[in-house]
Design brief:
347 residues, alpha/beta, Rossmann fold, Helicase, Ruva Protein, domain 3, 6-stranded parallel sheet, elongated
């Protein structure tokens, strides 16, 4: 089993298999792998004759696939046959709408060893869940075919891929802005990410992309508002914190929602600081606090440095006490929030 990077390196080195099994969450990346093989071996002038596709969930039998593979290519050394969304290679799939998963899988396994040299057979399956992994069937296929596991792109690979999306639209994006954009993209599906690129390009039509543009389009307003409220608290800027509170209330935010978000933010800061003090990795802490965006985590990390654990624990206790008062008495809720902020700063 290989990854996408190895797959592309092998193609450049002309290390080619006649049977590929691709699997993963990101169908667009899978399709691009297929496209790279088609572009290498199929002349676009004869693509209708030397490239055939079959819907894996609509096959009534595997015979049409075998017949396509056995037919000689036209004016070419190779032909490519694709079976897409072939869920029959997943474990415990039971019956397809047309052909049983067991029958289709067994037919495929039997045919792999007899695929002619002139044909490249590709089968791919898109995982339904983000945590899905190759099962026993796919692991079995890795012994007789080239299995490519298409994982979510990360780090420099993701940045390079997204940069191409911008370049395809004749739009330049700076290195810092590109990193900021990538950090707020949580989707495994690159098709969704490309739609977000299109949105950002339209939003900044005729001018350069800034971090403020990315923040305005892709950061959730409620999280951003609470960050803007907790930040002056952490910096002991009472006047600014009260001004942000008044602005939120003026805009129609409910006082109980503001309180819940403040408590949630302090709880996140407390958990992140505990994780850092315990020398846990960034990935482990992000999983524990259920934060997916690197950008959001970095904000929490930066903000948490301005509090001690005792101060954060005290702030959480203040939130709990304020919530009890607001639920069980007739206190002025706005005043209660103001007192919460004052006491959190006094900390």
């Amino acid at each position: 089993m290989i990854d996408v990077a190895t797959f592309h390196q092998n193609i450049k080195k002309n290390i080619i298999n006649n049977c590929y099994v691709l699997c993963g969450n990101d169908e667009q990346t899978i399709k691009e792998c297929v496209k790279s093989l088609v572009n290498k071996f199929v002349d676009k002038d004869f693509i209708d004759l030397n490239y055939m596709e079959f819907d894996g969930n609509s096959l009534e039998s595997f015979e049409p696939v075998i017949n396509a593979c056995q037919t000689l290519p036209f004016m070419s050394d190779k032909k490519v046959v694709l079976v897409y969304r072939a869920s029959f290679i997943e474990d415990d799939k039971g019956e397809n709408s047309k052909i049983s998963a067991d029958k289709a899988f067994n037919n495929f396994c039997e045919y792999i060893g007899t695929i002619p040299d002139h044909c490249i057979l590709i089968i791919y399956d898109v995982f339904k869940g983000k945590r899905d992994k190759p099962g026993k069937r796919i692991n079995k296929l890795s012994k007789s075919s080239c299995v490519v596991k298409v994982d979510k792109l990360k780090g420099q690979q993701l940045e390079n891929k997204i940069k191409v999306f911008f370049e395809n639209r004749d739009k330049q994006i700076g290195r810092i802005e590109l990193k900021a954009f990538c950090s707020v993209m949580d989707e495994n599906n690159l098709s969704v990410v490309e739609n977000e690129v299109e949105k950002l390009c339209c939003f900044t039509d005729g001018r350069d992309i800034t971090k403020e543009d990315i923040k305005a389009l892709f950061l959730k307003s409620s999280d951003d508002d609470i960050f803007d409220l907790v930040n002056p608290i952490s910096n002991k800027r009472l006047k600014e914190a009260l001004e942000v509170l008044n602005e939120l209330i003026y805009r129609g935010e409910k006082t109980n929602h503001i309180l819940n978000m403040i408590e949630r933010q302090f709880t996140l800061l407390f958990k992140v600081k505990l994780g850092v003090n315990a020398k846990k990795s960034k990935e482990v802490i992000m999983k524990e606090v259920n934060v997916r965006s690197d950008y959001a985590f970095d904000m929490l990390l930066s903000q948490g440095k301005k509090f001690t654990l005792r101060q954060l624990q005290h702030a959480i206790e203040l939130c709990i006490n304020a919530e009890q008062k607001m639920k069980t008495s007739t206190v002025d809720e706005k005043t209660e929030l103001e007192l919460l902020i004052i006491n959190a700063i006094a900390g």
